[in-house]
Amino acid sequence: MSNGIKKKVTGMTVAATMAISSLGFTGEVTKAAAETKEPTNVIMMVMDGTSAGATTLARWYKGGSLAMDEIMIGGVRTHSAESAITDSAPAGTALSTGHKSNDKVIGLLPSLVNSPGVAPVAPEDAHKPVVNVLEGAKQLGKATGIISTSEIQHATPAAFSAHVPHRSNYADIAEQQVYQGMDVVLGGGKDSLLLGSKARVDGEDLLEVVNDKGYDFVETREDLLKSDSDKIWGAFAPSALAYDFDRKAAESSEPSIADMTEKAIDTLSKDDDGFFLFVEGSKVDWAAHANDPIGMISDVLAFDDAVGEALEFAKEDGNTMVIAVSDHGNSGITMGNQSTNGNYPEIPVSAYIDPLKKATLTAEGALKKMKPDFSNLEEVAGLYGLDDLTAEEIDTLKASKDGRALQSAMVNMLASRAKLGFTTGGHTGEDVFLYAYGPSRPTGLVDNTDIAKSMAGFMGIDLKEMTDKLFVNAKESFENQGYSTRIDVTDVNNPVFVAEKGDTKIELPENKNLAIVTNGSEEYVKTLNGITVYNDKDFYVSAQALNPHPEQMFKDVSADYWAYEYIQDLAGKGIISGVSEEMFDPKGSVTRGQFIALISRSLNLKAAKSIPFTDVEGGLATDIAAAYESGIVSGTSATTFEPNKKITREEMAAMLIRAYEFKTGTALQAGKEINYQDKHKISPVFKEYVQIAAELEFMIGDKLNRFNPKNNATRAEAARVIYLFHKK
Ligand SMILES: [Zn+2]
Predict the structure, then answer these.
(1) How far is the CA of 302 from the centre of ligand 1 (A)?
(2) Per its UniProt record, what SUPFAM superfamilies does this chain match (predicted)?
(3) Sheet holding 504-509, edge to edge
(4) Which residues belong to the annotated binding site for Zn(2+)?
(5) What confidence tier does 10 reach under pLDDT thresholds 50, 70, 90?
(6) 10 half-sphere exposure, CB direction, 13 A CA radius
(7) Which CATH number fits domain 471-555: 3.60.21.10, 3.30.457.10, 3.40.50.720, 3.20.20.140?
């Protein structure tokens, strides 16, 4: 259904372009000054759950500097709205929207605020969606993309592309991501796209939608690197991708995070308006939860390679901001533990690192090699670097009842050999490092919400203003406009917001950027500039949805302009066109030729013969010929028409009424005289037409009851009369 509206818009654009030449408008209205300014780009990178201890260890393991080291510039406070230790969902929300939120909440305001220094949120605003920087960038015409090594529906990438009350709701997150209109989406999480999967109880085949939307859908590193599409959706695993060490060891077909980052930058940077890219190294956090130092090192180093790619581009580009942060600490990892209490000054780096170097796989990767009967237990332990096992160690491992217990025994053993400490298997509340590069980068100790604000400021996004535009409360806003509203849950897995007034019905399905509009017998699908969010209480929609007409077509004709409805309607039908694709010039004047062309098109008139006028040529000739043959117009002399002369209001009335007589097949006569204050100024030949035009309410006087017969008609006035003429 969305195809229909696309065609309409495309058709209109072609008509608009043609009209510029055929109607002889010279006004190539100045395009935004943005064209002369370098576009701004932002590459926002998050290494999930990475404490400073993990980066220190990864640097020693690598044996040289990290790419991140050279851009270390400050620190970040990570607490959530209600707790000292945050979950990834509110942390991601803070980084993407500039608002602290609550545990598990993605892209919505919090319902509970009790952290010191966090401003309270009004009860009615709880769980109200707030715009993220990716959405803001997209509104500015920038290309956008997200990357993760987890499933792409996971909390942090979700915070940059979706709005849901609970992070585990992959069904809604995946659907919103598909309708978000991003250019590049790379990661795991293919399952949540597939019809028949657990996530898709709503019966949506998102893979089909991805294909319909023109993405190049790729599933291997090879196909990703080969793609030359501007829109790429890569789903390289059913859920998460492998840890980088395991990926390399298995010579897997999955891309590395650096591969994905490089490809995304190549693709997005083709956009003249610049781009916003979000990248997450997701699994440092998972390894930290498991207290597996190998998984942490593996994915800190892989993430750092991706930062290297981003920096390489940013240095060359000069107008790209790169941010790399952790969203929170995890595991309390330290070099040194209880065994080093008294002797740390004597312990060299190698004592920590050498035991770790023996591992070829992460704990997860090694355990995947385990036979069901655990018969190869010592071999698996060896893959994790646990060689020369003592009898006691073998007994400990053998005592593990399941894979989970065994993993726990293995990681404890390796930590002990490498003298590493862990304080928890959960997140931690300390500040994390801030890495940033490029113009306007944030520095010093900042709050996680400040990072969203820095990115928005650099790109020129007013997040608050955009939230007001993209997420209005549907019930409240439609009811203010006299609609009756309801939430249709006939299909419980696909709630739809419905607004009705007269013979207009607007349906807004959740998670999509679509409005299905029925206007009497006419039905069309309107594409909105944002997704519709249902937070299980209220629907929030793009303000565009409040307008039952096709979307605003001209920058200089806003929805509150008096002639908006007329211009929109006629432009949508291809009858009227702008002076350029983006501008209508409503106050500009109209020539005789142009007005007749509008009438001819409105009546769908065709010319049979050529015209006697010597001053008419080009694209207008057929329209004028058709109107002339139909008796709607005559020339200004036997051989001239003066098509480029500006049309006055009284001339317009005459042409309009003659056209109306032609259309209805009836000759009209004026009734009683209308007492315009300036009636003496109306030329006698036009008097009756002006009067009929008033009676039919095609043309009326101004506030002072003047008709202004000799004034030139404006393009907006012409649109109004043609609209009314077309309707009658
Ligand atoms: Zn996290």
Answers:
(1) 17
(2) Alkaline phosphatase-like
(3) 484-488, 496-501, 504-509, 514-519, 522-527
(4) 48, 285, 289, 327-328, 427
(5) very low
(6) 6
(7) 3.30.457.10
pLDDT at 16: 34
**DSSP letters for 272-303:** TT-EEEEEEE-THHHHHHTT-HHHHHHHHHHH
Question: To 10 degrees, the CA torsion angle through 639, 645, 646, 650?
Answer: -30
* Mean pLDDT for the chain overall: 90
Helix (H, G, I), strand (E, B) or coil at 574: coil
Tokens 């009546």 belong to which residue? 603
87: buried, middle or exposed (CB in 10 Å: 19+, 13-18, 0-12)?
Answer: buried
Structure token digits, residue 471: 């997420």
- The alpha carbon of 46 and the centre of ligand 1 are apart by a number of angstroms equal to 9
pLDDT at 75: 98
* CATH fourth-level superfamily of 38-334+424-468: Alkaline Phosphatase, subunit A (3.40.720.10)
Annotated binding site for Mg(2+): 48, 154, 156, 280
3-state SS assignment for residue 570: helix
Q: Is the predicted pLDDT of residue 30 greater than 80, yes or no?
A: no
- Between strands 420-421 and 334-335, the pairing is antiparallel
Q: How far is the CA of 88 from the centre of ligand 1 (A)?
A: 4
Residue 410 has pLDDT above 70, yes or no: yes
Q: Are the CB atoms for 188 and 148 separated by under 8 Å?
A: yes
- How many other C-beta atoms lie within 10 A of the C-beta of residue 73? 16
Distance 76 CA to ligand 1 centre (A): 14
Give residue-wise pLDDT tens across range 285-298.
999 999 999 999 99
Q: What is the 8-class DSSP label of residue 323?
A: E
Which residues fall within 8 angstroms of residue 647, CB to CB, at 6 or more apart? 589, 590, 591, 592, 594, 595, 655, 712, 713, 718
Would residue 88 show up in a list of annotated catalytic residues for this protein?
yes
Side chain identity at 478, as an amino acid letter? Answer: F
Instruction: State the pLDDT confidence band at 551, using cuts at 50, 70 and 90.
Output: low
Pick the catalytic residue from 22, 51, 80, 88: 88
Longest dimension (CA), the chain: 116
> Ligand 1 centroid vs 520 CA: distance in angstroms?
50
Measuring CA to CA, which residue among 127, 195, 185, 142 is closest to residue 161? 185
Can you tell me which residue has the tokens 């009967």? 373
Q: How far apart, in Å, are the Cα atoms of 279 and each of 86, 147, 162, 264, 285?
A: 20, 5, 15, 10, 15
Quote the ligand 1 centre to 252 CA distance (angstroms): 26
One-letter amino acid at 273 equals D
Strand partners, 503: none
Nearest to 699 by CA among 722, 679, 726, 681: 722
> Is 90 exceeded by the pLDDT of residue 163?
yes
Structure tokens at 235: 């789903």
> Do residues 311 and 436 make contact, with C-beta atoms less than 8 angstroms apart?
no
Closest to 126 in 3D by CA, of 105, 100, 108, 106: 108
| Binding-site annotation: residue ranges | 48, 154, 156, 280, 285, 289, 327-328, 427
